[in-house]
Amino acid sequence: MHNIVLIARREYLEQVRGKAFRISTVLVPLAFVVVIGVMVLMNRQAMGGKHVVIASPDAGLATAVRGQLTQGKEEDGEQNNRFDLLAPAAEADRAALIERVHSKEIDGFLWVDHAPGKEPSAVYDSLSSSEMILGEKLEGALNRAVLRQRLTGNGIDAAKADALLKHIDLDTRQIGKDGTESKSNAIGSFFKGYLMGLMLMMTTMIYGLNVARSIIQDKTSRIFEVMLSIATPGDTLAGKLIGTGLVGLTQLAIWIAAGSAIAGSAFAAPVLAGKLSLHFSIFEAVLFVLYFVLGYLFYSVLFAGLAASCETEQELQMYTPLVAVPAWVGFGMITVVTNNPNSPWSIAASLFPATSPIVMMLRLGGQVPPLWQIGASILLLALSVWGLIWFSSRLYRVGVLMYGKRATLPELLRWLRYS
Predict the structure, then answer these.
(1) In three state form, how does the secondary structure of the chain look?
(2) DSSP states along 240-295
(3) Is the peptide bond before 88 cis (omega within 30 degrees of 0)?
(4) Which among 99-103, 212-216, 276-280 has the top mean pLDDT?
(5) How far is residue 107's CA from residue 134's CA, in Å, rounded to a whole number?
(6) Which residues contact 377 (CB under 8 A, 6 or more apart)?
(7) What angle, rounded to 10 degrees, do the helices at 282-308 and 371-399 form?
(8) What is the pLDDT of residues 130-167, one digit of tens each?
């Protein structure tokens, strides 16, 4: 046990004191902030700054469409959009509008054709073929305007028609296990699950790779032969796993403390009080740490066995994607899990040891799964870790001292018998 502590302490201090730890501790959360900021700015740019002309031979319909587009602009955050009106418009005006779009004087124009006795039809012309957000907004405004015109045409007062077409906001609530209602937020739940799953996947994979690189470095520098004079291969592997795992927990603690401090500041209050409100319970925090430890052990032990069978770091990098596939598959299920956390696929992935740490975090973002599923997931993951430690430690004992001989499948089976 003393040797395990010494090796764990060496691994921990060597990585924590390194420049890479300090840089990654600062740059990783900073990168997240920059990416989120860029996404927000791009979203605002996509939603605003457009100059569109509404044109139609039917002046009343064109005016109604423009009224629907300009209604509630401040609430939608689209103060920069500009919608001009050209009505009544003739076919010659359409050709002139095409030329204005071609010369980039305007971003596009909506041509609404409404011949007497026929249903209205509309065409939106622009230089881009991917303006989905603006296209959906124009289509919605057009349909509301046509519906309002039909209502008023059937003798309904304009004020009553506006009242019938008034938009209703949907207030979402979640029913807890005790039967009580609580306010919920789909966007906040998605980002909470996304954040927990992403952090867990990144940290477990990064520190699992650190264990593998440490083993490769020991093999190539022959320092392991010196270490064997005071410690067994099992103690060495255990020390590396514990030391590197503590490095990951230290970095997570720094990120969580910094995130909590920022969340409690006046700077973050407007964001956390809106649609991106994120709230974490103590139960979720405990499960996050538990799944981090088990997920880290699962993948780091896999990487340790892989590194023991490789000769160089380049060879290790070639096989690394094979080990990382389950983690990427689990994170790739984010859409399925967040939309239906209790589907058979979501439950199965949260019980399968290779994907359970990430998928369970994604499920926790929306609702707490049944306790029996959490217990079964943790038990299966713990048993898998135990089995992998038994398997990888035997490969490690022989492979870490094997030089100049490529590890084939028959060779690996012989290593298991030797140990």
Answers:
(1) CHHHHHHHHHHHHHHHCCHHHHHHHHHHHHHHHHHHHHHHHHHHHHHCCCEEEEECCCHHHHHHHHHHHHCCHHHHCCCCCEEEEECCCCHHHHHHHHHHHHCCCCCEEEEEECCCCCCCEEEEEECCCCCHHHHHHHHHHHHHHHHHHHHHHCCCCHHHHHHHCCCCCCCCEEECCCCCEEECCHHHHHHHHHHHHHHHHHHHHHHHHHHHHHHHHHHHHCHHHHHCCCCCHHHHHHHHHHHHHHHHHHHHHHHHHHHHHHHCCCCCHHHHCCCCCCCCCHHHHHHHHHHHHHHHHHHHHHHHHHHHCCCCHHHHHHHHHHHHHHHHHHHHCHHHHHHCCCCHHHHHHHHCCCCHHHHHHHHHHHCCCCHHHHHHHHHHHHHHHHHHHHHHHHHHHHHCCCCCCCCCHHHHHHHHHHC
(2) HHHHHHHHHHHHHHHHHHHHHHHHTSTTTHHHHTTTT-----HHHHHHHHHHHHHH
(3) yes
(4) 99-103
(5) 11
(6) 350, 351, 356, 360
(7) 20
(8) 667 778 888 888 888 888 888 887 888 878 877 877 77
Residue type, 31: A
Task: Give the separation between CA 137 and CA 69, rounded to whole angstroms.
Answer: 8
Taking only Cα atoms into account, the Rg of the chain, rounded to an integer number of angstroms, comes to 30
The total of other beta-carbon atoms located within 10 Å of residue 407's CB is 19
Q: Work out the end-to-end distance of the chain between its first and last CA atoms, rounded to an integer number of angstroms.
A: 21
Tens-place pLDDT, residues 36-57: 666 656 655 555 578 899 999 8
